[in-house]
Amino acid sequence: xxxxxIDKTILDKYCLFLSNYDCLSYFVRIGINSGPAxxxxxxxxxxxxxxxxxxxxxxxxxxxxxxxDHIQMTESCYDLLKDKSPFIKxxxxxxxxxxxxxxxxxKK
Length: 108
Hints:
Elements (H helix, E strand, L loop, with lengths): L7 H12 L9 E4 L5 E5 L5 E5 L1 H11 L5 E5 H7 L5 E3 L3 E3 L3 E3 L1 E4 L2
Parallel strand pairs: 1-4
Antiparallel strand pairs: 2-3, 4-8, 5-8, 6-7
């Protein structure tokens, strides 16, 4: 699980990195979730490493329902990071396969 490596310092550095390139014509959305996942290598000739599971799918939904240049996370991830960084609570949003959920945005 990569979550222990995500802290305020890394998030701040990433936001600073993005702010240095505001003249570019693209924007990045990031979705974060925490929980169990299955990882493995697939393929016989050309190997590929991949992650599967509800945790991964929900992180993907956080990204796709997020805002450009923002980091959006689930409530479970927020509970792990709330004492380390400032966050903005969003109103409930509908997430396919999950229903309405409260999500949080990392405050730059």
